[in-house]
Specification:
Elements: H1 2-15, E1 22-27, E2 33-36, E3 52-57, E4 68-69, E5 74-80, E6 85-86, E7 94-101, E8 107-118, E9 127-135, E10 141-149, E11 159-167, E12 172-177, H2 182-203
Antiparallel strand pairs: 1-3, 1-12, 2-11, 3-5, 4-7, 5-6, 7-8, 8-9, 9-10, 10-11
Helix pairs in contact: 1-2
Length: 204
């Protein structure tokens, strides 16, 4: 009887699992090609910069998934082009993530598209940042572009200046399961210890 209480307590502590979220992180290769008017846009891209991306999903992407759209399933995300960081979307921003995975669940092909505004969209002097990441059977493509807009840009084409940076070398992905929250683990362990104490009391 005593052993049964102890076994049950151990199950409470270690046999209960919760669905853990999963973080997918991408580190792009450094930019290699540069086009545009860096003098009109403060702070240029350089060969020491690259795209860094991470996003969190409530559950891992299944192995051998085929170009599945996770744009509306992101719990959190982080993206940097070396000059700016985004962790949320404005009302006129867009961020689309499509991923295929290999047999181990690691992204094997992907297409990530983003557009982010600094300032009031379409206003004179606003800045539009666009991002394109893809690997669709050929080499990886990482591309970022900054456009300094005139009134109505980009709908009527009034782009005052722009700068583009590209890389065509493969980046790397890592997949990290989120840790079980510490408070939950402590609660389960304390419950187990309490159950063991009761088992000893009533069987002694």
């Amino acid at each position: 009887m005593k052993q049964g209480y102890i076994f049950g307590a151990l199950l409470m502590a270690f046999g209960v699992t919760a669905d853990a979220s999963t973080i997918y992180s991408y580190k792009g290769a450094n930019f290699e090609f540069f086009v545009g008017d860096s003098e009109s846009i403060p702070g240029g891209y350089d060969a020491g910069m690259s795209i860094s991306l991470s996003f969190e999903l409530a559950s891992p992407i299944p192995a051998n998934a085929v170009m599945t759209d996770f744009s509306n399933s992101l719990v959190t995300f982080f993206i940097s082009d070396g000059r700016s960081v985004r962790t949320s979307l404005g009302p006129d921003d867009a961020f689309d993530v499509l991923v295929s995975t290999d047999a181990s669940g690691l992204p094997s092909t992907w297409q990530v598209l983003g557009s982010f505004w600094d300032g009031t969209p379409l206003a004179d002097g606003s800045v539009l940042r666009t991002l394109h990441m893809s690997k669709l059977g050929g080499p990886s493509v990482d591309e970022v572009k900054i456009s300094l807009c005139g009134a109505g840009c980009p709908i009527n084409g009034s782009i005052v200046a722009s700068e583009l940076a590209q890389s065509f070398s493969d980046g790397t992905w890592t997949v990290t399961p989120s840790a079980v929250p510490i408070p939950s683990a402590v609660f389960l362990l304390s419950s187990a210890l309490g159950a063991i104490g009761l088992a000893r009391k009533y069987t002694s």
